[in-house]
Design a protein that fits this description.
Layout lengths: L5 E5 L6 E5 L9 E2 L6 E2 L8 H5 L9
Antiparallel strand pairs: 1-2, 3-4
């Protein structure tokens, strides 16, 4: 199975969608929204911002 390394991250504050490269060797705990500058953090129970707000889970969860 091929690991997906790009994801569309949707800001829960303003709805802005940004396509980003996911790290393959660690979880990403913070990401600042390019539009509203809100700092995204994982929701409780998720390992990273991509698992919480991305259209695909992070590589370590795939």
């Amino acid at each position: 199975m091929e690991v997906i390394t790009r994801a569309r991250l949707t800001c829960p504050q303003c709805g802005f969608v940004d396509e980003l490269e996911m790290p393959t060797d660690s979880c990403q705990f913070f990401q600042q929204c390019a539009r509203c500058k809100t700092v995204l953090r994982p929701e409780q129970g998720d390992c990273c911002v991509f698992c919480s707000y991305g259209d695909v889970p992070c590589p370590s969860m795939q």
